[in-house]
Queue: 2 jobs
Job 1
Amino acid sequence: MSVELGHFALVLALALAIVQAVVPFAGARLGSQTLMRVGEPAAVTGLALVVGAFAALVAAYVQSDFSVLNVWENSHSAKPLLFKITGTWGNHEGSMLLWVMILSFFGGLAAVFGRNLPPTLKANVLAVQGLIASAFLLFILLTSNPFTRLEPAPIEGRDLNPILQDIGLAVHPPLLYLGYVGFSISFAFAIAALIDGRVDAAWARWVRPWTLAAWAFLTGGIAMGSYWAYYELGWGGFWFWDPVENASFMPWLAGTALLHSAIVMEKRSALKIWTVLLAILTFSLSLLGTFLVRSGVLTSVHAFASDPTRGVFILAILVFFIGGALTLFAFRGAALAPGGLFHPISREGALVLNNLLLTTAAATVLVGTLYPLLIEALTGDKISVGAPFFNLTFVPLFLPLLTAVPFGPMLSWKRGDLLGAAQRLQAAFLIAAAGGLAAYFITDRASAFAALGMVLGFWLILGALTDLALKSGIGKAASSVALRRLIGLPLSVFGTALAHAGLGLTVLGIVGVTALEKEQILTMRPSEVTGIGDYSLHFEAVRPVTGPNYTEEQAVFTIYAGGVARGEIISAKRLYTARGMPTTEAGIRTFGLSQLYVSIGDSTADGGLVVRIWWKPLVILIWLGALVMMTGGAVSLLDRRLRVGAPARRRSAPVPAAEKA
Amino acid sequence: MNSMLFWTLAAILTLAAALAVMLPFLRGGERTVSEAEHDLAVYRDQLAELEREVQRGLISESDAEEARAEIGRRILRLKGANEEDRPPRVPGQGKLARVIAVVAILAVPAISWGLYGVLGSPNMPAQPLAARLTKDPSQASIEELVARAEAHLAANPGDVRGWEVLAPIYARLGRYDEAAKAYRKVIDLAGPTAEREAALGEALVGTGGGIVTEDAEAAFDRALKLDVENPRARFFIAMARAQEGNPEEARTIWQELAASMEEGSPWRVAAGQALASLAASERRASASGPSEEEKAAEDEAADDMTSEARQEMIEGMVASLDAKLQQDPDDPEGWRMLLRSFVVLGRRDEAEAALARAREALGPQSAEAGKLEEFAASLGLGTKE
Amino acid sequence: MTRKQKRLTIIGTGMGFLALAAALTFYALGQRTSYFYMPADLLSQPAQAGERIRLGGLVEAGSVVRGDGTRVRFAVTDSENTVEVVYDGILPDLFREGQGVVTEGAFGPDGVFVADTVLAKHDETYMPREVADRLMEEGVWQE
């Protein structure tokens, strides 16, 4: 019964979403306060209902209720409890339900925390949120219903695709969706501004924290996905320029641009039209990502949907929202009042440069992702656009951007002094260059490219530190004063510094692993030894192991460094019995910031085992950097200024109880 | 009763949702704040923030002065715009708003009950696996009992008796692979006996779809080493000979088997039947009429009561396989076994029907269906499309 | 600078980046994309030795030969035409004879295809899309 109650709650949530889409909007048109206020309780109740539906599905998974088609298709009674739970969103239907739950979550947040927003703006924002929710709830109920039942119920399920039975999967999609869907709030604000024909002063204050939160989650989601692919697929790569990865990377690029242009808009009331456009583009790219992954138009590890009706339905949603938003923008965009003026060399100018480079980079990724689809549709030729394309287009655009990053925070608003900024960054540059040179010699002049990349990484990190030092007056004022000032700096300044330094860490990691990686493929027999980097691997034995829902052959290696055993590394060939599907489990061992990575292949006729070994220097920094960027976003969010949506505190509050929420 | 509870809860949920929509109408009007007031508050806050930044020395006094002037200009512009404040009142909006409100509140139950009526299965209870496995055994299906036994054996893999009970049930259900595994487990745990080896062999014959494979024959050989007299092993060794195209040897073994068993014992009957069908196929092969003697033997075998019982058992197995495939049609191996069984039983029409169902179930275009078609063709089925 | 000049600077910079990006994109699309071939295509439009292509088809049953160490030799077929492929490395988990495969690399001067990447299907229902489409057209494989 709980299953059916969950199903009913989902249908009821659709009804509420439709009400939420129509009534507040009508209220705003008619100028009726009462109708406008319907959005709030509808959004909150809708959230409760979707959460209930999701909980019912999770319960069905945990209890192995195979009378639910979705559970039968994707679960197995022998699966560990954790993967029963995460399996809920390891399939098309469940992941769409998670998508909608997060959408409702943001809608609910906007309703609760938006009590001090101008009422018309809020009504329109909630209406747009309701419209998106209606479209996706309808999509779920009509084409991808997770509550479809099976009679009679089979006694055992078909198990989840083994490569998805992983802790990485537990975290990756929710984070990614929090990012994707979080941008829906910025989108809703943009549409509301266009409908109204004006951008309230509170607009940017509101858009920025939502964008920041979504951006931080998306950063984490992408990093998690990259780490998952790294250790689970056993290919040792951290980024494949796979269309599905690109699908999450494009909104990230656009979202980063939006984040920066929202700063200009908040502080200086400039770039209004551009910010609105970026908000639309960012969410459009999120929707495009959802479409690419969910419709199965791409051949990819991630595309588990291949039902054409689903593809057409999502395409219709995509066309409706993106087309509708851009049309609205074309007609109403010009009506938005232009903002303040600024000199090309200024903080604003730097942020515009950042925006230009980020959006152009996003555009090249978009072209590279969609070009094969386009060519196939036009000529029928099948081509593939892979890493070489992106390295040739994306990297040249990103290098100047990274070089320019430390300058941005150094320039003042309106009119900046480039030379002055360069002087202040002198020390950072010299140390970065020295660091690069040192790296060059430490690695025995392995690669000049690596050395230059290292300079760039150090430059970003030191630039961020320089900014903090200058703002707190370290080196100029007495140290106790400087320390007090440093502590007193607004959190958003720390956020910026952390995010930029995190970018530097990621750059260091990427450069380290791309330029200095060592790789070996060889055949080994037990008790043979091979060396890689400063380590040697001693192949001990192969032993069979039985897991809860798989059996595996583990190859055990002992690692020696300078004749001392430094631990074991185990790679395995695993067979998931329910689907009879083999997988390779890579063995990974971390040493400082670097990793040894072992992946085994087939046995050879003479009793040997094909073994692939990588030494991956600084690889950890790639994800550590992302984590630092995320932390930067979180720190920035804690800034008091951002928590105040609009300063309702200081006037006779129209809705007294709202402030504590 | 369960379904009553469901509808009650559904009704409560609907009521709550409709109430949520109604809430703003119940609370009545409140003082409204104009958009300009909101903007003004934001600008004031910006000024305050500017002062804080000046105090910390983050921006120079001249920059701050400029910024102050700019915010001041925005406030002035706002005051100018304040005169023609919005929102515009649409005439007659009160009435229209009330209509919208009523429609919205009615829409909640209408949409939800309507759509759920189409999509839902309100009378289907949840069926958590644990509850299904612990309910009264007399009401459980065979599959559920088997799953229960499997769960028990997964926890106690050393329980020989459990495996010994489960193995023949698997065989009866047509799950020969698992039956073979279970017999192997029994042999591992409790040591081989002739009967266990022979039963393993029979299960392997099942996995081979009725063909005595090398593995199966090896099992029967082991059984005969332990007990030369084991009837099951002898019966299938004979079948192996017959399948190899050595009917003479097969006939000898079956005849010996029939002679050595008591009247009415199942193996004697089975051997008699096998002899009869051997004779019949030879007759067909030589295309000559049956000799009186052979015909009599065949009739005798067919008349035999226990032979009918055996036939019944075979048909029972076929029926259970059939049922299993209806439940889980995505099982090409199962379809292959069913087709072969129907052909062996001489029920070609049913075989054709089963083939059509299999085509449907596997998807007419699928690779599996293709393979199945080939297999069917080898049995002489599916020629008339 | 006047207001107009400032605006022109920004627009000019923007256009400059777009032009740069467009130029890079077109250059890269011309250079760095690889066409997909099936063995039969190579009869009508042979690929140059050294030209980077993707070659797809089914792994011919019985063709997989493991050489010394990690070298593997196998044949990719569309059931009529066959191409010899050599590969040095670890084959994917789901690489099996008779199954779909996509290899990426170039022909050596001796007419043997030297692959540096081998992709097999990722689960039991997945088939490299290009291969599935083409084999279905030719009726060799059915979904």
Note: The radius of gyration of chain C is 22 Å.
Job 2
Amino acid sequence: MSNIKKTPLNQIHKDLGGRMVDFAGWQMPVQYEGLRQEHNAVRKNVGLFDVSHMGEIRAKGPNALKTVEWLTTNLVSQLESGQAQYTLLPNDKGGVVDDLIVYCIEKDADYLLCVNASNKNKDLEWVIENNQGADIIDESDYWGQIALQGPRATNVMKVVMPDVPENLPSFEFATVKFEGETCYVARTGYTGEDGFEVFVPATKTVALWKSFMEKGAAENIAPCGLGARDTLRTEMRFPLYGNEIDDTTNPYQAGLGWVTKTKNKDFLGKSVIMEGKKALTQKLVGIVMADRGIARAGYPLYSKEGAEIGRVTSGTPSPSTGDNIGIAYINKDYSDLGAEVFVGIRGRQLRAKVVKTPFVQRGGK
Amino acid sequence: MANFHVPEENYYTKEHEWAQVDENNVTVGITEYAQDSLGEIVYVELPEVGQKVTQGEPFGVVESVKAVSDLVAPVSGTVVEVNESIIDDPGLLNDDPMNNGWLICIEMDTEKELANLMRAPDYKKLIEKK
């Protein structure tokens, strides 16, 4: 692909020996030294991720709240300035356009929607088409984004961006200056560990990355690629759009009822989602392989009797536990903890067990 | 880029396997380039002794954390030996792909098929282009 996009950190990744791959139209590092080291760095110390490929859509103006409330499933009106929430952008057919985080920059008047890179154009079209009078701005080119994740993230943050409160609560963010430019530093992440995601202007992304790497050396900071990002989120059973969720997924099926607030608000697609909820036959569960073999996305699940009862949506060896873990949609009858199921791997049916998730606790325990 | 060891005496496939020919026995493994590209190998699936394999067709898989890759037979024939130790310790494929990390030994049906494989100079050119 000739028009592949590059983040402000592209050259840095190459200088660090990053193995570059095409991901959602972006050239991104899948790993540097090795996926396992990077994964463990985040569970034990601190890791640094380039997530500049993520999209940023801004909704401003007197109708900003009305618009974001209508377009998303969670309760936006509950957010005060400086707070954020995980939420969904539903479509009008009972499925999900994207999952995202909404940042309340200024209550009622200014919201930042951080969306998946792979869905940004689709999201933007959808938001504009269903806009309730907000000013919609695509700020994706303006922002770089860096995630600092791990139990020692706060030690690094306090020397690099000392204005960020050390006790910043989860899903809140601070507005601070870095080299004179406004940044949003959120206590969020996609790894299950403590940490931050920093929105930094593209022009300052390289300087901020270098500062994290330099000041983080004392904490054994490691640059981490998309490979570790995926194993870390899978261990937490965090959904990935395109795997666990897509345009046809009912939020309740994906276990996302907790961000689908049907009682206290109205939103686009609400009635179809409510209708779909009644007919759900499958549930999202965690599985662990009992036989030797790795469950991968798309592999079928079978009952003992050989009936097809579901499908794996994500699967990987877990660097933290050493088990081969998976996330799967499975018929409710087989979804009890401890249930024995069989994964179809290249024509063989290998034993696995339904387990509780997340697969690991903080620190990889 | 890294300097990969490509022994002169071996044959190579475009899927980055090496084939060492001794009479009509062909020992098969993955190249240093292959192990480096795959990253940490965590799972290997191999055929049983006695199984038939066909040149250019998959005979097993190797899996890294991220990916599943087919192992492709360099020649047609019958599997006469399988390296069981790599099933328990797939990391051998990363540590020593050219020796202790060998995969299987095939009794080949016909030497003629060797003409379809690459020799070391051509294989070196292939991986230099990467």
Note: Helices of chain A lie at 10-15, 35-44, 64-71, 120-129, 153-160, 202-216, 226-235, 270-278.
